Amino acid sequence: MSIRNGTRALRAIDRHTVAADIVLFTIQDGSLKVLLVRRDRLPFRGRWSLPGGFVRTDESIDEAALRELQEETNIGNVYLEQLYTFGERDRDPRGRVVTVAYYALVHWQQFQVRGKPDGSAAWFAIKRLPELAFDHRRIIDYALERLRNKINYTTVGFQFLPRQFTLTELQRAYEVILEQRLDKRNFRKKMLQLGILKGTGQFNTNGRQRPARVYTFAEPKVIKLQEKGIIVPF
Q: Second label for 205, Cα 20 to 30 Å away, from 2, 118, 144, 189?
């Protein structure tokens, strides 16, 4: 390759920008929600979008994702799983931008969401999303499909719950994600057979209903099953 051709190739590479976007799911008020931030600059000023931004030259893509999440929402110390790479030519009007998307599941009470000074970070129900910037609706749909697929064979759904919970709360989390009712007896039987739940000896009383046993996760067993992958068809 000649020096001239090599220079042209480098210039072509320079025109490709890498970004990181994060789909952060939670369950709140009985709904599956995603965290969005309102854009304060062009393009798509005023529209809602996923937290994220361009990758700096002195950081990895993983580092950029965590930094952008912290800067835009005040949420940090979250385990992010790489989702997919979106690289269509016309996805960003500013030029060729390749986005590496991540997703994470959190319990909403564990984090205090705080956006920029105008308070432009908020949870939105998946079924009532506003008009989004770029192709972020497609990214969310892809993440939702991944979540629903994984919940059938891993313990991924547990990340939505607090440290202590009832079996009813656990089942409700699964039903919200899958958007379907599950048989109570069958669900509880399968969850208890997995050996990943540990009774706390406490009971949750709710009105006139029978007191519900409170559980926590047997973390070593959960980690072991997550590494292997478990089959839990409902």
A: 189
